[in-house]
Amino acid sequence: MASILPASNRSMRPDKNTYERYTQTQAQAQTRKLKRKPRSVWRWRHSAERCLLSRACGTRLLKHTVAPRGRIRSLHPARHPLRSFSHLSLLMGKRSVYVKNPYLEGMDEDILYHLDLGTKTHNLPAMFGDVKFVCVGGSPNRMKAFAQFMHKELRLEGDGEDIEDICAGTDRYCMFKTGPVLSVSHGMGIPSISIMLHELIKLLHHARCCDVTIIRIGTSGGIGIAPGSVVITDTAVDSFFKPRFEQVILDNVVTRSTELDKELANDLFNCSREIPNVPTLIGHTMCTYDFYEGQGRLDGALCSFSREKKLDYLKRAYRAGVRNIEMESTVFAAMCGLCGLRAAVVCVTLLDRLESDQINLSHDVLLEYQQRPQLLISNFIKKQLGLCDQMS
Ligand SMILES: O=P(O)(O)O[C@@H]1C[C@H](O)[C@@H](CO)O1
Ligand SMILES: O=c1cc[nH]c(=O)[nH]1
Fold first, then answer.
1. At what angle do helices 140-153 and 363-384 cross, to 10 degrees?
2. How high is the ipTM of this complex?
3. Which terminus in the chain has less CB density within 10 A, N or C?
């Protein structure tokens, strides 16, 4: 059984995945080598940076060191040339977006099929290099509305109504860019968001983005809290209330940590205090593979348990710290954590699952509820950009 690791330990004991084990062994060997030859090696500028590097990039980045005045030295220039600017930016004190795939660098072209983008067909650094915030959510219309809202909030030129879908060549996902904010839809459920995240993370990597914060703004079912409450997730848990995501890779089950950035969650919570009339709390979010049986609903096409069993399960979830249920947070937390993205999940609750299963809100109330996470995130982004006088 693979272990569940807190984020701080990931670099020390990565998942039981062959490649990650391989890179870890290589990284340790390389570190030993660096220690044996102190004079040939310049010191890292910050130990935190070194830690981040070894955690996120494994062996390849350890082959590069920082010389005085930020000059980059490769220990083995012939075999390991400095391949990407994102490595350089991290060495200069920025946090890059990482891919952890040794095959990617050998590819002549990378086609991001479900986004209808590619490294040969699009100038990704020019299109996306300035992205600092990525907001993702299930529905294409909601993510378009969020992009238009951000356009106004950031006071960009024009009214934003004619904002174009960057992924218009495909109907799998949609993507809108407003200044440094990217708004992307991910569909419903773990497989759908996972495909989008693979391609989005590669996109951010190819575009050499750094210091990126990614936030899922979604809807959920609450447990024991008023409908319309906004839950900021501290930890995403699975159906057994465990902070883990189990990824099947070939015929192995690889368990990954689902911890999210606690500091970011706290910053968001502090930001929420400035928004009146929106009850907001921090809690665990349970992520399921299904909306009906998987979330203990009695109103699906299939149901093989009693009302009592449902309530017992949901009350146990509440006692374990779960305050809402949705369908993407575990894989989102796991993938973003492994790829060096500061990540948060902020979902509004549409109902209290201890009271009912059906969502019977009027269209207007549903719309207003869905805007609550958007309002919080827009205020957070504006604060981060130094535009905090413009609170909505
Ligand atoms: O971000 P959204 O509101 O699409 O996420 C939740 C979880 C499921 O994908 C979906 C179920 O209605 O809503
Ligand atoms: O109950 C709910 C509501 C929204 N999304 C979910 O996954 N569950």
1. 50
2. 0.99
3. N
Confidence (pLDDT) at 55: 37
Is-contact 234 347, C-beta < 8 A?
no
Is 295 annotated to bind ligand? yes
Indicate which residue's Cα is closest to atom 2 of ligand 2: 221
Residue 225 marked ligand-binding: no
Helical H segments across the chain, by residue range: 18-36, 47-57, 59-62, 85-91, 124-128, 140-153, 190-206, 262-272, 307-319, 329-338, 363-384
Claim to verify: residue 161 and residue 234 sit in the same structural domain:
no
Residues 300 and 157 both lie in one domain: no
Nearest-angstrom CA–CA distance, 197 and 205: 12
Does 180 share its domain with 247?
Answer: no
Residue nearest to atom 1 of ligand 2 (CA): 221
- Structural domain of 109: 100-211
What pLDDT is stored for residue 31 in this prediction? 35
CA-to-CA distance for 356 and 314, rounded, in angstroms?
Answer: 12
Per-residue pLDDT at 48 exceeds 60: no
Band (pLDDT 50/70/90 cuts) for residue 61 is very low
Minimum-distance ligand to the CA of 370? Answer: 1
Write a three-state SS string for 59-92: HHHHCEEECHHHCEEECCCCCCCCCCHHHHHHHC
Round to whole Å and give the CA distance between 148 and 342.
24
Q: How far apart are CA 185 and CA 195, in angstroms?
A: 11
Are 224 and 177 members of one domain?
A: no
In this structure, are 204 and 222 located in the same domain?
no
The answer as to whether 266 is a domain residue is: yes
* Best residue among 295, 331, 359 to mutate for probing ligand 2, ranked by most atoms within 8 Å of CB: 295
DSSP state of 42: P
Residues 188 and 225 in one domain: no
Q: Higher model confidence: residue 8 or residue 170?
A: 170
Of the residues 211, 227, 247, the one at which a domain ends: 211
DSSP 358: S
What is the rounded CA–CA span in Å between residue 331 and residue 189? 10
Q: How far apart are the first and last CA of the chain?
A: 48
